[in-house]
Every structure is written in structure tokens, then in C-alpha cells.
Amino acid sequence: MLRTASILALAVPVVVSCTGSSPGSDMGAVEVAAEAGGRADAPSGDQLDTHEREQDRSTPDAGAGDAPADAACRGGACPDAADASGDGCLPGACPDLASDPCANGVVPSGVEATLAGGGFLAECGGYGVELRPEGVGSLRIRYRGSAAPHDQSWAIVGQGEPSGWSHGFDGHSFHVCLEGGTVARLELPGCRLTIEDPSGKLLFEELPGGGYAETPAPGREPPGPQRSLTLLSPPGEGLYGFGEKTGPLDKRGLKMVFWNSDTPGYPVDMDPLYQSIPFFVGLRAGTAYGLFLDNTHRLTIDAAGSQPDRIRLVADGGEIDLHFLAGPTLPEVIDRYTELTGRPHLPPRWTLGYHQARWSYYPDSKVESICNEFRKRDIPADAIWLDIDYMDGFRSWTWSPVGFPDPKGLVSGLAGIGFKVVAIIDPGLKVDPKWDIYQQGLAGGHFLETTDGVPFVGVVWPGPSVYPDFTRPETRSWWGSLTPGVTDAGVRGIWLDMNEPANFNAADDHTVPGNVPADGDGNPTTMAEVHNAYALLENRATFEGLLAQVPDRRPFLLTRAGFSGIQRYAAVWTGDAASTMESLAMSFTMLMGLGISGVPMVGSDVGGWTGAPSPELFARWMAVGSVSPFFRTHVATGTPDQEPWSFGVEVEDISRLLIRQRYRLIPYLYSLLRQAAITGAPLLRPMVFEFQQDPATWDLSFQGMLGPSLLVAPVLESGVQEVEVYLPAGGWLDYHSGALLEGPATVVRDVRLQSLPLFLREGAVVPMGPEMSWSDQEPVDPLTLELFPGAAPTSFPLYEDSGDSQAYLAGEHALTPLTLQRTPTGAILEIGKREGTFVPPPRKLRLRVRPVDHPATAVAVGGTQVPPLGGYEALESASSGWWWDANDRSLWVVLPDQAGIVITMTYDPTPLPVDPDVLVPVEVAVPAGTPADSTIHVATSAAGWAQQPLQWVQPGGLAGGTVSVPRGHWFEYKYTRGDWPTVEKWFGCLEATNRYAYGQAHPTKKDAVEMWADQCGE
Asked: DSSP 3-state assignment of 811?
């Protein structure tokens, strides 16, 4: 996309008389440039005739919000900044500037006002600095060195129109003040730039004397110097984001390279990886700001790694073209960054489900078998993915006539059991004179060519291959026209891989060489500039092609490589990660880093791509996947099976529970996705995003927030029995058990293989759905709201629509504000009026309010009392009513879903001083032949392994009861028939390990005994 070039008009000198004097100085005149202050309608210098010029000298244009230029120096002389004497306005000499540095609208000599762009260009002796306000809190800072001006950006789509800004000169420094109070100050002479927030806190500061430099780069191709900018960074400043980078959340102390690279099985300290997003958020003493370096050449950002007090940005080509984004909060910075580079695309709702992939499921019968196995085992799943073996000889946009002879029939059959199909596409196209797509590409001039004018040939999966030039508009259109190759079969998503672009030839440095020419959208360039943008433009071409071919359906793309702005088109996964616990821990942090880099729909390959994870590693990765925005298992060829049932019964059961929990969260996650499409806010976000003023959150890498209300602390180490979790100030509720905790505190939680510590934040409103086998299996009914009222009102916008069509853009959606508050007599939930034309089907609304430690006395809807119910089971059948669950410490309310109502719940909100024990319900199926006159017992670690009798539910078949255990803690247990000689055994009389369960009231723990010890030998 072309970015409007700034017009470098020569400033018109204006004589301003200083009416006062200062000690030791004579009254005099100063020449200042009084331009239009950013007015787009002001004439350029060559449009002014002599009369207009004289008129301009006498009555300079003040511009929007600017004071007249003759207000510059009331009370003191202000010599020209370029005056050899070096004098300037003395302190106190310009009282207007003491309170407002932009009060006079003066542009000093040496600074040009760029009329059409609303910006300014300062001459700095060998280079220039351009400052251009772009909107509220956003400033473009462009260093004009020896490179020819280049006004093209593939990342930026949303430059805001400057408004409400002003400028001025105080004799020492030229100031640009942005709407919102951010002030940029350019010292003259020297051109040292600093930026302050409204309170005067420095957020951006070049080295004294200026931080820009050009240095020789021998052997660089194409030839030219490196350009760099060095900024001061105080100790303790946090540096977050940078896209897809390994290491801790706070990247301070790292030196990072931005060059998209194919790195299969990469180690935990690998750099660079697949994505290049040269954007970061700085946090100085609790105040956030952002910097985006808009340059697609190879970059290096030294985040105080080489020198502890400096950040150095280095570009191997192009310009240092920065965008400063004011905060003061991280959400505001991300909002401004995604306004600049494009809002995230809202994908279909089904993409939030579970996805299964491997390289490769082949042939089509294997694909069908895998999908049928998910349904047979009652494990929810939404999508099956096809890797490169579905193609005809690895040719993109084709199907293997042997392995997939009827793709349309395959896809249709899978749709009948709730599976969508996603197919991989690679940009490297096979050199095959008999292939029509190759011939089309040659005829249309769509392939990258060498300087000799012949297609560049690399090597990828098909063998010798050519690469489309996605910087060419005609090529993007042609590529988009190829999408029916998969969409005509009913494929619902496209997976773009190998798009760094990858090349197996080591002689080419495993990519397309930098000297290969590229169209550059009509501005001829080379792959040295295009490399990092290649995948971004491929995604754009594919996205636009899908929209053209299937206009009523939302495109879904997953990409391996990308650049800033990739969120406009695609989800991102962290590539070919190794199957190690260290890689799992790194991946969780990477997902949060990508989230605060403007990419909300992110995930990792569950289990790792290199294959052969242990059962423990797969279970732990499944837990991380269940709270990742994008949730997919994927593994390399030649590795053991990596489906949820491939690691034994225990891991299969854990996977099923985690996936079911994920599906219940889809209404919450989908609402977060819609928020991301509006503000860029990540779904999985680091703690600092929500708790910026708490220094204890600034460097937390291994726990995070899923939206505003759920704290997630997955287990990321092997063999551990306990984890530490930091809880910021306020109340926190163990999501599963209802145990109440108070922050700020670091708490220790015992864990087992099944553990995924989750905590509800005080004020939480979390909409949830029922368990489903796939996301659109049926309408959401009931809609459950998990509520944890706080003293201050909190609100969450529930977003709903059809789930896959584009009609939501025309208003066919429903946005329902849900506002919750604790009161001295209980709690109030207000369900606001819905915005939009989408009307959800009739359904039951179910509220779960926690903690409620004392009996509730009443529930009213709009002043009308709701009847009390007799128990939990009655909630399932009643259309309206409430029940206080003492064991769960909760108040349950059911009623028909409706908008525009207020629900008042009356109870004593005072929590008990200590969490009471919980009665955990258990139910066990016993082996055939178990005497009906015997009594089944359960022995628990919580009770010192004492035998506790259960009651027959079905004599000789099913027994049940409850066990009292500490709330929110794990316990171990076994079943017997009353004594240890009858303890349960596994088949073959193998010793059964202890069972374990969590101290929670719901759901019932259901087990089955395989055989009794006294049956052995019979």
C-alpha cells in the first residue's frame, strides 16, 4: 500500500519582532518560518504570488490551535536558533512557552513545514529528521539520510489524520505537541530528539548530540551503508513485544535479528524465526509507549543487550522510519499500533475449536478414520488439516489423484460429522512445463526473475520451483484466482507454509537471494527489501482471493511467516517447535509476546512438531493449547501418532476434559476475538497488560490472563508437584473449586498431570456454553455466566453472530453489555439492551455467582421474584428459579434469556474467614460379578486412607457418594470392598496406581474398577 509522501516545501521566512528585552540583549527581529501548521489546504511556496507572500509576512497563519507568531517572545529577545551567537530565549523570557511549549506556532530556520503532510523536516547536517503527527498520540519520526526517500509501506494502512496538534519554538528547541499532551522536542542545533508524556516523563531520548548514524557495510548486497538510531534506556525499563521471539517476556538484554527464516525444530534460544514484527512496547516507571520501525529490510534491534543503557535500531537498507505511539497504558499502545497497521481480522467461530493435523494424513481413508475416531471417543474437534501429501506431486492448488481422488466427496462427508477441512499451500511452484498453473505464471510474468530476466529457481518440496512476485498487483490477483483449486472442494481454510520464503539451496542462504529484483507495487526494488514482507503480501493475495471467490464467508488463513500487519489477514502459529518441555515453556511466552505485538490469533503445535513427546509433555502442552487462542495438534512425518488417545487412557481422559472446557469457553473467547478486531487487544495477554501499575507483573513470563477475567498458570516443568502463582491485588477465585484467595500474594498450588491452574478475577463476567462435539453443532443453550462480583461495577460485552458470514459487518450481530456489581445485600447483574440486528435463538440463561457463603434469600428479575428450587438437578429442568449450593459456595439462577433486564440477588456477601472443606461426589462402576451384598468403599489421602463406605446406585453395578477434602487441593484415592486385600487392580492383576481428583463440588468424579485384588487367580 502506498503511503502519501510528505511534501518538502521550503519554509517562507517571516520576521517576528520581539517586543520586550532581556538583560544584556538588544531588541531585535528574528526570522522564523510561519507555515500553515499542518493545514492540508495551505498553498505551497510556488503557488504564492508576490502579494500573497507580503500578506503572509504581515499576518502569518496561526494554524489549528496555534498562537500568532508574534507571541513568541513577549518579555525577551529570541534570536534565530541558527544565530552564531548561540543565544536563545532566556528562562522566563517567554512566559507563554513556560506553560505551553507549542504556544507560538513558530517554525525556526533550519526546519521546513511540509504543507500537505502536516509535518516538519529539520536539517541536521548530513541528514534530516521528519516529524509528522498522525493522530491522537501518534508521531512519525523519519530519519532522512543518504538513501533516496521511499514512501512505500506494506505494513501501514491506517495513518490517522493529524488533529488537535500544535507546534512552537522557544529559541533552543522546536516542539511538536500531539493531541493528548505528548510533546516531541527537537534540540537545535544538533537535532537531538526527545519525547515526553503529559507529565514531563521522558519516553524517547536520543543520545546527546543525536542518535542517528550511517556506517559502512562492506559486502552488503545491494551496496549501501547500515543506518542506525541509538536511544537511551534507563535501568528497569521493560521492553515487550518484538513479535515472534524466544526468551523471557521482557526482552531487555537481548539482541534480536528480524529476518524471516525457516528454522525446523528450533532450539529455545534461536533467533531469528519465521516472523519479523519490529514493534515493541516500552514501560518506564509504569508508563507505556510503543515504537514501530517500518522497514522490511534485515533489521537488528539491540534491546540494551550490548550496552545496558541503550537501545539500538539497525537497518541493513532503507530508512529509519519510526512511529512513536503514546500510551500511557499497554492497551492504548496496542490500539494505536493496530490502528496504524490494521485491525485483526475476525475469523470464523469454528476456528476457536480443537484442530488436528500431522504431516501427513494419507490417503483420504486415513483422514476419515481419524475424524471418526474423534467422534467415537467423544473428544470434541472442529477441523482436520491436510499437509503436503494431499497434493499431486506437491503442486499447490492440486489434489493427488491416487490418495484423494474425490476431494469434494471427502470434504462433504466430513462436514456431515462436523469437521471442516483446512489445506496447506506453499508459494514455491513446481517447474513443470506440462502444468497449466506453471504455464500461466510464465505467460503472465508472475514469477520472480533474476537480473538476467529469467525466473529465479529454488528448491522446495516439489523440487526445482519458482516463486510468485507478490509485490506485483497483477500477480496477487492471479494467485487469488487460484483459490478455487481447494475452495471448490469445500475446503474452509488455507494454511500458508514455507513463505519466509524458504529454499532448500544452501548456496542461496536458504531463501531467495536479496539481489533478485521485485516489482515493488510499481516501485522497482529487490528481495533485500521484500523478503520480510513476502509472506504478508502472499497472505493478502490469498485473503483477497478467498473473499472474491466466496464473498459471503469469512476467510481463514494460518501463516508461518509474516511482518507487521499480518493480523489483518491471518492467524499465526509458532512454527516447527521441538518436542521438549523447554520448548513448551518458551512457546507459552512467545504467544503472549505475539499478542502484545498486535497478533491476537496465535497458537503452537501441541506436542511439538519434531515428535515423540512423552505422555506428560503432551498432557502439559494440551493444557497450554486449551488456553491458546488457536488450538491445534501437529507433528512431523515419520514420528509416532500424536492424537489425544495416542498416549494412554489417562492422557486421553485429560485431553478430553481440557478440550471440553475449551468448548465451554468459546462464547467468552469469541467475544474477545471481536474486541481484538476493534482494538487489537490480545486474547492471551501477559499479566502486565492487565496490571501495569504492579511492578511484580512486569517480568512474569509463565502465567498470563485469558481476557480480562481468567488468570492461567499452566504447568511448564517436568515432574513438579507444586507451582507458584502470583495474584495481583484484589480477590481471586479458584475457577474449579471456588476457593477464595486475596492478592497481592504469591500462592503455592499443588498440581498433578491433570492440572491447569485457573483463577477468576474479582469482577469477572465469563459467558460460557454447553459441551459440544464441535462449535456449531447446535445453538448455545444454556448460556452460562460465571460471575464473581466485586465492589466496583465491571462490564463485559457478550458478542454473538452467525459465526461465519460477513453479515456481521453490516450490523447482523448482537452486542450485549453485561454489568456486575457486589452490593451490601448481595449482587446486581444488568443485562443491557442488545446492539445489532442478530437475534440469538430462544435459550435458557444460567448464572453461577460465587462465592456465596451464606444462604440466599431472594432473586428478582426486574422487581419480580424468581422461585427457589430444591436442588442442582432441578436447575436442569426448571425454566426459572434459583438455588443456593452450600457445597459449591454458589448461587445458581436460571431464567429465559432476555436483554434489557436487571437481576437482583439477595444474600450476605461476607465471605467466610476460611474456605470450608468440600464434598466431592464420586461414582464408580464395579466389575461384573461384584457381590451385590458387599459394600464398596473409597479410601483417600485426605482422610488418612481410612475406608469410607459408598451407597449402591445400582446394586452390583454402580456405587456413589461423597468424600470430604480440602477445597482447591488435589487428593489421592482408591476403591476397595472394605479392606485392602480387596483393593482395585488393573487387568492382569497389575498394581493400580493411586487415582487423584481435585477438591471441587462439580462435576461428579466418575470411575470404573477393572477388577478386585481378591479376584486375582480365579
From this structure: coil
